């Protein structure tokens, strides 16, 4: 069995482009990185890296090893860290991807309570509104809001939520009244950018649907809080989950529009899911985290 630390060192060198940068990333000495890579090359009987005074490049064998190892190493590390302690408690590092807006509104306030319940789990939470590749990016679990692509991953439903169409009172007072979805074509739209083909809002009433193109939005971003603030500032109309705008609605900073219509920014699949690899279905740390969120769901939305 090859040393995982040596593989980790090799990957860091290739990804960063130098031994010194890899040493900084892994918080160790340059000599340690060089020694580990050298030992790996000796064990494999292959030269993996071509070193020069200014750069590092992979050999054919090194390139092939990198392509395989950078996908497999996170899974190997996850398998090792998911083992329970001798007392049977979930333990190890749990790497989680969460949409930024959802993490701020809901996950953040729960982290201390989760730590108190499972003190042996060390959380690395990456908040990012872009869709991540759970396996390739080395995540144990990702929280996904709404529409899911077909995949080989397990998608555990945590619950459901609803979307709402809102704007600030100032914006609504300065622009024509909105009484029908078709009126939105003449308004300033602020829309969320997804890694999906959807560039429309869909409104539905009495089984009749209306598709509103967001191509003419003056502002499009994958940062939900930025869009939220722009709407509060009078920039236009947004579609966001109700939990994301609840506080602004309560204090009158935003007002709901076309309240008699169901609305979505993707499809009418308004679930929230915990997504993880099928190979991790028995992971005690993932079970603990997902189970904790399920129990808290009524408090989240």
The number of distinct β-strands equals 15
Described by strand count, sense and barrel closure, the largest sheet is:
5 strands, mixed
Helix content: 25-40%
Number of domains: 3
Structural class determined from secondary elements: alpha+beta
Number of alpha- plus pi-helical segments: 9
According to CATH, what is the class of the largest domain? Answer: Alpha Beta
- Separation of termini? 47 Å
Shape, principal axes of CA atoms: elongated
Strand content: 15-25%
CATH architecture of the largest domain: 3-Layer(aba) Sandwich
- Which blocks of ≥5 consecutive residues have pLDDT under 50? none
Radius of gyration over C-alpha positions, nearest whole angstrom? 24 Å
From the structure provided, what is the oligomeric state, counting identical versus distinct chains?
single chain
Biggest sheet strand order reads 4-3-5-15-6
Describe this structure in words.
The mean pLDDT is 84. With 301 residues, this protein is an alpha+beta fold. The chain has 3 domains: 4-72, Arc Repressor Mutant, subunit A, CATH 1.10.10; 92-160 and 270-300, D-Maltodextrin-Binding Protein, domain 2, CATH 3.40.190.10; 163-264, D-Maltodextrin-Binding Protein, domain 2 (3-Layer(aba) Sandwich). It starts with a helix and ends with a helix. It has a 5-stranded mixed beta sheet with strand order 4-3-5-15-6, with helices on both faces. It is built from 9 helices and 15 strands. It has helices at residues 4-16, 19-26, 30-44, 60-81, 100-117, 169-174, 224-232, 242-250, 284-300; strands at 49-51, 56-58, 92-98, 121-127, 141-145, 154-160, 163-167, 190-192, 200-205, 208-213, 219-221, 238-241, 255-256, 262-264, 271-276. The radius of gyration is 24 Å and the shape is elongated. Helix 1 (4-16) crosses helix 3, helix 1 packs across helix 4 and helix 2 packs across helix 3.
């Amino acid at each position: 069995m090859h040393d995982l630390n040596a593989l980790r060192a090799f990957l860091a060198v290739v990804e960063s482009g130098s031994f010194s940068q890899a040493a900084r990333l892994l918080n160790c000495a340059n000599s340690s990185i060089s020694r580990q890579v050298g030992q790996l090359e000796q064990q494999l009987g292959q030269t993996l890296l071509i070193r020069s005074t200014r750069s590092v490049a992979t050999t054919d064998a090194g390139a092939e090893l990198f392509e395989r190892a950078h996908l497999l190493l996170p899974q190997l590390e996850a398998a090792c860290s998911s083992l329970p302690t001798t007392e049977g408690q979930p333990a190890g590092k749990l790497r989680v991807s969460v949409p930024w807006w959802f993490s701020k509104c809901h996950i953040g306030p729960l982290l201390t309570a989760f730590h108190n319940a499972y003190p042996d789990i060390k959380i690395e939470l990456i908040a990012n509104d872009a869709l991540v590749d759970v396996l390739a990016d080395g995540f144990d679990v990702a929280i996904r809001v709404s529409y899911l692509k077909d995949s080989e991953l397990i998608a555990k439903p945590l619950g459901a939520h609803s979307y709402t169409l809102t704007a600030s009172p100032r914006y609504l007072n300065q622009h024509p009244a909105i009484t029908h979805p078709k009126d939105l074509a003449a308004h300033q739209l602020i829309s969320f950018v997804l890694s999906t083909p959807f560039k429309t809002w869909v409104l539905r009433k009495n089984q009749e649907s209306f598709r509103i193109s967001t191509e003419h939005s003056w502002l499009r971003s994958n940062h939900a809080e930025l869009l939220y603030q722009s709407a509060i500032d009078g920039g236009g109309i947004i579609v966001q989950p109700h939990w994301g705008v609840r506080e602004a609605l309560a204090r009158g900073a935003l007002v709901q529009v076309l309240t008699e219509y169901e609305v979505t920014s993707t499809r009418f699949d308004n679930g929230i899911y915990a997504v993880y690899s099928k190979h991790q279905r028995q992971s005690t740390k993932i079970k603990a985290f997902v189970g904790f969120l399920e129990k808290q769901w009524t408090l989240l939305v």
